[in-house]
Here is the input.
Amino acid sequence: MLLDVSRAMRAPGEAIPFEHRDEIPPQEIFGETVTFDDVLLRGHFSGAEDNLRIWGTLTCTAHGHCAGCLKPVDYPVEVPFDENFVRITRFTQQEETPEGEERWMYEGSKVELSHLSMTLAVLDLPMRFVCGDDCPALAALPSSFFGIAAIADKGSGGVIMALPKGKVSKARGRSRRANWKLEVPAIVECKQCHQMKLAHHVCKHCGYYDGKQIVNMEEKEEKKNA
Here is the structure.
């Protein structure tokens, strides 16, 4: 189903509320078929030029089976989201998407949210569904069956959650690592001995800085050998 965002084009920068329903097909997760009720996305969208921001909360109910006794389990899904979309034009179509980076795109005045809904809901699901800490088959299962997160949560009841629960997109991770920079130090020639030295530092070869002797290298060498 498509979300009409034409109001964002007529009122750039304005936060416009919306409520959108979508469907997620059954998904195979760890060998189990998980079904979903209709998805409800509620929030706001705002646009400027060819960029569109959509934020809010996704809610639905996922249906699976207990990993211990195979009883039906209903798992409530509630996921906050904040995503940016780029409208496809004859200019953006010529741009190449970086390898491994996912870009949300839309055409015209309507946005397809089915893929976003499925991604958010599936990433919020647990590794294994558990009907509760009173499940008769739960105690017989080894902790390794539930993964690392289950070792601490096995007796707490409810649903055993996966770890990590949130996803960090490749684009966000690369954007963070883009600030990890190494700077080449400034190297200049010493006017006294003509050796290379760090700029704005005393020369380690002759001990001079700005034409003045700051460190007596002979005394320093004698103390070092003493």
